[in-house]
Design a protein that fits this description.
The complex is a heterotrimer.
Chain A lengths: L1 E5 H11 L4 E4 L6 H13 L6 E4 L3 H13 L4 E5 L1 H6 L1 H10 L4 E6 L13 H5 L6 E4 L3 H18 L3 E6 L7 E5 L3 H7 L16 E2 L8 H30 L7 E4 L6 E5 L3 H14 L4 E6 L1 E3 L3 H8 L4 E6 L10 H9 L5 E6 L9 H12 L6 E3 L4 H13 L6 H8 L9
Parallel strand pairs in A: 2-3, 2-4, 4-5, 5-7, 6-7, 11-12, 11-14, 14-15, 15-16
Antiparallel strand pairs in A: 1-8, 6-13, 10-12
Helix pairs in contact in A: 1-2, 1-7, 3-5, 7-9, 8-9, 10-13, 11-12
Chain B lengths: L1 E8 L4 H14 L3 E6 L9 E9 L14 E4 L20 E5 L21 E4 L1 H9 L5 H12 L4 H11 L2 H25 L1
Parallel strand pairs in B: 1-4, 4-5, 5-6
Antiparallel strand pairs in B: 1-3, 2-3
Helix pairs in contact in B: 1-4, 2-3, 2-5, 3-5, 4-5
Chain C lengths: L47 H16 L4 E5 L3 H6 L11 E3 L5 H14 L6 E7 H6 L2 H10 L4 E6 L40 H7 L4 E6 L3 H12 L5 E6 L3 H4 L6 H11 L5 E4 L2 E5 L8 H5 L15 H18 L8
Parallel strand pairs in C: 1-2, 1-3, 3-4, 4-6, 5-6
Antiparallel strand pairs in C: 5-7, 7-8
Helix pairs in contact in C: 1-7, 3-5
Classes of the chains: A alpha/beta, B alpha/beta, C alpha/beta.
Chain lengths: ~425, ~190, ~325
Amino acid sequence: MLKQCEGSHAVAEAVALCRPEVICAYPISPQTHIVEGLGEMVKSGEIKNCEFINVESEFAAMSVAIGSSAAGARTYTATASQGLLFMAEAVYNASGLGLPIVMTVANRAIGAPINIWNDHTDSMSQRDCGWIQIFAETNQEALDLHIQAFKLAEELSLPVMVCMDGFILTHAYERVDMPTQAQVDAFLPPYVPRQSLDPDDPVSIGAMVGPEAFSEVRYLAHAKQLQALELIPRIAAEYKQIFGHEAGGLIRPYRMEGADTVVIALGSVLGTIKDTVDEMCDDGLKVGVLGITSFRPFPLAAIREAVKGAQRIVVLEKSLAVGIGGIVATNVRMATDGLPIKVRTVIAGLGGRAITKASLHRVIRQVMHDQIEPVHFLDLDIGIVNRVLERERQTRRTGPIAENILRDLGGVAPKLG
Amino acid sequence: MFQVRIHGRGGQGVVTGAEMLSIAAFLEGRYAQAFPSFGSERTGAPVVAYCRLDDKEIRLREPIMLPDALIIQDPTLLHQVDVLSGLKRPEGYILINTNKTFAELGLDDFVKNMHSGRLISLPATEISLKHVGRAVPNVPLLGGFAAASDLISLASVVAAIKDKFSGKVAEGNIAAATEAYNIVKAKEASHA
Amino acid sequence: MDQQVKFYQTGTFTVGNRLLAPEQRAVQADMARTNSLNSGHRACQGCGEALGARYAIDAAMRACDNQLIAVNATGCLEVFSTPYPETSWQIPWIHSLFGNTAAVATGIAAAMRVKGRKNVRVIAQGGDGGTTDIGFGCLSGMFERNDDVLYICYDNEAYMNTGVQRSSATPPAARTATTMPLGPEPGNVFGQGKNVPRIAMAHGIPYVATATVADLRDLEHKVTKAMSIRGARYIHIFVPCPLGWGAASHDTIKLARLAHETGMFPVYEAEHGEVTGVSKIRRRVPVEDYLKLQRRYAHLFGKKPAVETIARIQAMADLNIRKYGLLEEGAN
C-alpha cells in the first residue's frame, strides 16, 4: 500500500511486519523515531508476541540482543554513530557467535568533534566485524532491506547491519509502498535457529578457542560472508517475485552501458548523482553510476565485471580513513586490481555537508580531465585549514581545534546546506 | 519539479508544514519529498524545511537552493537569515506570515519584477490563534499556498491535516487553512 | 519439652547430613543432583568459586525443575569450566563478554517470555570484577527493569583470572599485582569500597542475599529461596581464592568461615531494600586470625606489625557487627 511517511516510520512498520520477538533499544539521534515507533506499536499491541526493552546503553542493547537471539528469538535493535562504537565489543561478539540479529544503523558521523549529521564513518568503523552491511538508497529500499535482512541473517546465521543515511533518509518524508503482512509472511518464515539455549537440549556457547582452532573459526566467518555473495542476489530475486519491485542485491548499475567514467557510491547520495549524470549524459558525456548495496561482503567480482569497460572511476564516499584516504575507494581498487582503470577518491558529505549537483558536475568533469588529485575533498575550504595550520606553526597554545575553525567561519552561521 | 522552502523558528511547525505539504501532494497522486535542515531540537532557533513536488520519483537530496516558492513563517528572520536566497524570479512565490505589506517589510526592490498574485502577506499567526488557540502559522500558510499556486487543492490540505492531527486540533487547523485559502482567493479575485 | 541443641564438631561447624531429615539435606548430598558444573573442570585446588558455583547451580536446577539457562561473565569460572574443546556444563550456558552478563540474561529472559516458556529461568553469574566494575552498568539496568534474572556474584576480591589485579571489591591493605605492598600505604588503599549487595538493596529489588562457601546449606537455601521469586534477584557469595590470596588450598572453607566470624563479611538476606535476616556470629574472632592465613596480608605482620592498619580493618569489622547486629545475644 502506498503511503507518504517519514523514513524512520517506514522502517519501523517494515520491522513490525517481520514479526520480531525482542526489540531492545537505546535512543540516539537520528535513530530515535525508529525505536519510538516500534515501542509504540508493541505497547499498543499492534505488534503481538514481542518484548520491547528499554536498555541503559547501546552496549546493553546489543548484549540483550545477543541473549535473546541465542535463546532463539527473532531480535532487532538500532543505533548510530557513538552508540555503534559504544557497543563495538558486543557487535564483534554477535557475529563471532553467529547470531542473526538485525540492526539499523542510521548513519551518522563520529566525534570528536561531536556531530549529529550524516556520513558513513560509523558503519565503516565496523566494516570488518563480521556483520553483513547493506546500504539503502531510498526510504523504499530501507524498508525493503530490513525485510530481506531478517531472511538473510537467519539463513546464514550471521547478523546484518542495514545502513540508512541519518536525517537524509530517516527524517525525510517520501512515498513508500508498504507490503502486506501476507506478503512478508510468504517471504519470511518463522526463525529456526541453528543453535539455541534450551534446557531440553543443553549446549555451551561462547567458549574460549585457542591457537589450534581460532584460524579455522575465523575463516568460517569469512566463508559465510562469501556465501552471502550468492545468497544476497537470490534473496533479492525472491523479494522481487513476491513484492513486485527491485530492492537489495549486491550492486546497482545505472547508465553503465558504454560509460567511460563511472561514479561509485553508497546510500542516498546516489539519487543526486543520478540526476547529475542524467544531465551529463544529455550533454553527450559517457558517465555511468554504480551503486554498491552490499558493502560487506564486498562484491569484488560483480564490481570488476561491471566496470571493466571504463577508463576511470570516481569513488564518492562519505567516509575517510584518516591517514590514508578513502575507505570505499580502497575496497574498489581491490576489485579493479590489474585493470587499466584510474580510481579517484572524492571524500564528500562528512558530518552532513550537503553534496550538491553543482559540485558533482564540477568534480566529475575534473576527474574526466585528470585535473584532480588522487584523494580529493569535495568543497573543502582549504583557506580555513591553512589558517589553522599557520596558527599552529606560530603558537603552541592554539586552543581547541574545532572552536578555532568555528571562529574562523564567523560563528554558527545559519547558512543553507 | 517544484521546490518549496519553508523558513521559521523552532516550535512554529516548520517541519510539520513541509511534511503536510508532501502528504497533500501525495494524496493527489504526485511524488513529494519533505525534509528539514537538521539540527538539535531547540525552540526559537531558525529552522528551514524543504519540500519537492514532482510527477516522477524524486532522487535529488541536496537542500533547496533555487526554490520556486518561499514560505516565511516568521518575518523577523527576513533581515537575520538569508531567507530569500536563490528564489526563482520573476515566476516565484513568496508567502509571509505578516500583516504588513511587502513594501512595509522593505522587500519592494527584491520583488519588483514578480507577479503580485504570487506575493502573499497572510496574518497566519492570528488566523491560527483564532481557530486553534496556538500560534501555529504553518497550516494557514499551507492553505494560502494552495490558493495562490493551485498546485494542491484545499481538499488535499484538509486531508493532510487529518493525517497529522485529530479531534479538535484537526478541526481548528482545517478552519484555519480554509480561512487562509479563502482570503488569498478573494485577493486574487479582487486583483483580476 | 523442646530444647534447641546446637551441634558442634571439633574444628568445624558443619552438621552432617545423617543428622537431618531427608528434605533438609543438601542438594549436593542427593544422588539425583544435576552436577550442572561437572567434574573435569580445570579450577585450582581449593577454588572457592568452583565450590560455590556447583552448590548454587545445582540448587537452582532443583528449584526450577531443571529448566535453567546460565549466562557467565568472562573470568575464572568461565575459563576453567570450558577449556576448549570441552565443557563441564550440563546445562544450557552462554558466555558473551566481560561486562554484559546481566544484559544478556535480560535478553534470554525476554526470549523465554515471548516464547511462552515462563518456567524456564535465567541465572547470570560472574566474579567480582565482572560484577562490581565492568559489569556494573548492565547490572544496575537489569535491577532497574526488575528483569526476571538471578544474578550471582562470586566474590574473590580481585581480578584473578588475569593475574590477581585489584578490583573495586578488593579489601583495604590487601596485596594484588596492582596494589603492591610498597610505599607509605602498602597494599590496597583504604577507599570507600563498593558494597554491591547494599546497592542492589537500594534498587529495591525483591531479593538480595550474601552467603559464603563456609555455610553451603545456607547458600543452597538462599538460592532456592531466590528461585521461588520472580523479578531481579542478587546473591553475593564470598569465595576465597587460594592462589590469589596466598592461602593454603585446604583453608578455603575455613577462611570463608573466619570472614563471617570476624564480621569482615556480613551474611544476611534482604527483600525490597530491607534486611530480613542475618547470620549471627556464634563465636567472635579477631580479624588477625583471618588475615594471618593469607599471604596477601603478610606485609601487615612480621617484625614490625602494621598495628594501625590492622586496627582500621578491625574497626571495619566492628562496624559491620554493629550495623547488622551480627552478634548473638550473650556472645562476646
